[in-house]
Amino acid sequence: MEYTWVMSKKRMINTKIWKDIFFQSLTADQKLVWVYLLTNESNNTLGVYEITSRTIAHETSLEDQVVIEAMIKFELEKKVLIWNKTWIIITNFMKNQGMNPSMLAGAKNVFNILPVDLQSFILNKSIISVQRIENEIDKTPCHTLSQGGTLKPKPKLKPKPKLKPKEREKSRPKDSMEVAHYLKDYIPKCLDFGFNIKTEFAISWAEKFYDRYESQGWIKANKTEIKDWKAQVRTNVKYDEHKNKIVNARLWEV
Question: I need a labelling partner for 127 at 20 to 30 A (CA). Which of 31, 120, 229, 250 fits?
Answer without folding.
Answer: 31
